[in-house]
Amino acid sequence: MSTGPGQPERSRTPRWVWAVLVGLYVLAFPYHPGLRSPNELCRLWQTRALVEYGTLDINRALQDYGYVGDLSVKDGKYYPSKAPLLSFSAVPIYAVLRVIGGGFRYAVPEVPLVYFSRLFLTVLPTLVMLWGVRRFLSAYVSQAVADAVTVTYALGSLAYSYSLLFMSHQTTAVLLFGSFYALWRCARGEWRERGYLVAGAYAGATVAAEYTGAMAVLGLVLYAVMTVLWRPEPMRARLLTLGRAAGLATVGALPFVVGLMLYHQAAFGHPLESGYKNLADAAYQPWHLGGFLGIRYPDPRAFFLSYFSPLRGLFMLAPFLLLALPGLVLLRREGRASEEYRALFWLSAVVLVGYSYFTSSFSYDSWGWTTGPRHLTGLVPFMLLPVGLLLERLRTGRHQWTLGAAAAMCLASIVITGTATFINYVPDNVSNAFLGLALPLLKSGYLPPSVLSFWGLTQPWAGLPLVLGLLALASWVFIWLAGAGGGFAAREVLFGGALAAVLVFGVQATTTKRHEQDRGAVQFLQSQWLTPPHRTLSFWPDPRA
């Protein structure tokens, strides 16, 4: 792979980069029990009910462990309103923790249950996914660009935010990418046809994890059809291959789809009736009525705020994703001479359009106290190849200031999204998630809760390594993309980087109001913080004490 003027090909990414990245995933623990995180706890209360009482409903769990939100009710029985995959997946984790804790009903406190459920079901799967992302990108761009985009995706996008929460959004992204990866390897002839079985299993699990993931699954179906029908083979052979692929994918998906329908039948009385049709809180019902799961006609306000809101707009939190838009143009041009690139272009474009329609037609006000537009988490992996192609083109171009600007957008994404993720519970009346909430909390000594606190360290020493690690990797990405052979970037590159940084952080500053709502949100989260300054934390308190 060629490189730009004065930019020889890089050596291998230093191991410390991957070590710090893993540490940022494994050590960070943004959780505050006082907030009663409904999206997480409703799932884990069903996990408790399955183990402790052998029931799908959580009525007894609500009595024994306390009330939580995000519930559905049918015939007086309460269930999580969410798709059930994560609740069931956490059962073996809870069962093991119960044995470790002494084997009785209250043996597992809330904090270790949340931490280990996140660790095994949202954190580690994402870390495994990053290997696949890097492998996929390196097939089309240089290893230096592939590594930089992988790190930026890992820390500068919703992938980081929702890996550190026991919610289904990053799980959906992992499953969608797993399905795509299997289809991609099959299309390139690197896997045998039984790879379609794997693709189908991931696709079926996607719907069992998050209902709206079905939209992206349709895009994967289109991609699979294109990669088979555009092969240079006789039509009869292509149709036979397509039939076998469809059959194998269906067999792979069937256990998850049938299991989901059986769950609906048992809980809500019909295989196609989900919890969203039986919400316990009447205030939330209008958001999910009409259309498909509340998806109606698009609303320009919802579209604009989902992408550009200073509170949780996708491009405001992760400006590097803006590079995907011109990157799609490059991908389309490559597709004129290559069926492989053409199929990848249509997949990226269809998924982008599908998620954009969804976020435009669903109520923006229903996002909740979250980092970014959480339902767009599954979109982000399909924007990475266009980002990588544009970065590769800029590295070989003559206007090196544009490379510096693009590298600075990657740096800014890691700083902004990573810092907001350290908070990860963003009240919806804050003006700006980064400068209006996250930075004031950090400056006042409320650093991110960390596993190091469980080992006896107090703040700021427990959270400071996370902040320093994030800044180190943000700086590394900029230097790795913009620097020459490990040296300092040229003046033109630095100028472009400074220009982009001033623009990105200037927009952040001008949209931060510092009004009473910002101050109130900071004070409220300080009152709920898991690890306030200079206080110790007991990870696994004795529930019998």
Description of the molecule:
- The protein has 545 residues and is mostly helical.
- It has 24 helices and 2 strands.
- The protein has helices at residues 15-27, 38-52, 59-65, 85-89, 91-101, 110-137, 143-155, 158-163, 168-187, 195-209, 214-229, 235-268, 285-288, 300-308, 314-317, 324-335, 339-361, 384-395, 400-423, 434-443, 451-454, 464-482, 491-510, 516-528; strands at 71-74, 77-80.
- It has a two-stranded antiparallel ribbon with strand order 1-2.
- Helix 1 packs antiparallel against helix 22.
- It starts with 14 loop residues before the first helix and ends in a 17-residue tail after the last helix.
- Mean pLDDT is 92; it is low at 1-8 and 484-488.
How many strands?
2
H/E element order: HHHEEHHHHHHHHHHHHHHHHHHHHH
End-to-end distance, in Å?
Answer: 63 Å
- Which ranges are low-confidence, i.e. pLDDT below 50, for 5 or more consecutive residues? 1-8, 484-488
Mean pLDDT: 92
Main beta sheet: strand number and arrangement?
A: 2 strands, antiparallel
